[in-house]
Fold:
Amino acid sequence: MADLELANIEKHYGAVHAVRDVSLTVQSGAFVVLVGPSGCGKSTLLRAIAGLEDITSGDIRIGGQSVTRLAPRARNVAMVFQSYALYPYLTVYENIAFGLRARGEPEQRLDERVRWAADTLSITDYLERHPRELSGGQRQRVAIGRAIVREADLYLFDEPLSNLDAKLRDGMREELKRLHARLGRTFIYVTHDQIEAMTLADRIVLLRDGMIEQDGTPLELFEEPASRFVAGFLGSPPMNMLNVRLAEAGKQIHLSQDLMLPIAGGAAPAQDGEYVWGIRPEQVRLAEAGAPALKGTVDVLQPTGSRLLATVLIGAQKLTAELDAHCGVSPGQEIALSVAISRTVFFDGEGRRVGPATAG
Ligand SMILES: Nc1ncnc2c1ncn2[C@@H]1O[C@H](COP(=O)(O)OP(=O)(O)OP(=O)(O)O)[C@@H](O)[C@H]1O
Ligand SMILES: [Mg+2]
Structure:
């Protein structure tokens, strides 16, 4: 069953066209992450689903019923806000209980639900404290507790981890995933953080300027990006983008006048011409002696502990390679790199990905 259907959603704020013809069907129990750069319309879309923002046109259906004209309260949707939005003068218990109390939930049932939510989020010890007596991470849990205490059809999260430090964020990501499995409900999660999108989602919807740029599983977007925009957004360090010219029906890649790499037929687009060649840092290795290779000069080295990030100058272009931590290269050294070409991607002048020629 589809829990959520968005049909041709449009949102204008005066002259700003914040959401453009967004259509999306979300299956029950999914963990969908809406991701994209600042200002691309993520919060607007999420707030529209919750009913906190009127849409200019289109239809929103939850559980098969149109809710477009329903007030937020009538939508059975629970939302976690980036700013937490806790009541400072209420205890943690009363903060979590607030929505249920407002709906007239019987006291015993309310108590059960609050204690269950607190237990799920490991904040039972803090129930009698006030928000100011909590750390940022604990406040974040209370904000999530306020949402999950209700049995909603949809749980909406707007950048819930963005106020936490890096270490807490890592821990909370894991907990959110566990929480999703435990609740078995549909999560719609907004973030601009590509790591959160990759690690949490079973489906990523990548937005750009109010439109869906690509919609698919994390690995689909990572390995088969529809565009240079998607490819550059996902992955850290980011994909290398080299200007190249393909020749001989896609059997030669020219990086400059005197720098050419032969490639197996079918690995690159068959149409000769100018392309942007997308190479992820982990698709580059030090070449074996005698193998076809890109020759370059090591510019900067950044050890991460487990790997060595090497910025290599290939002619006038820069390439970041993720090498073995113990490979022993040093700045200024001339090195030869081999590229797993069949896993790399090519983009045309408009930034759209062009698939490889089919083998043969
Ligand atoms: N109330 C408003 N009035 C006018 N313009 C608005 C309003 N709210 C948002 N916008 C504009 O709509 C666009 C989308 O905003 P939105 O808040 O949805 O972006 P976002 O993707 O959530 O960004 P961020 O990652 O920075 O939170 C932006 O250009 C923003 O300036
Ligand atoms: Mg936002």
Observations:
- The radius of gyration is 25 Å.
- The chain has a mean pLDDT of 93.
- Residues 166-183 form the longest helix (18 residues).
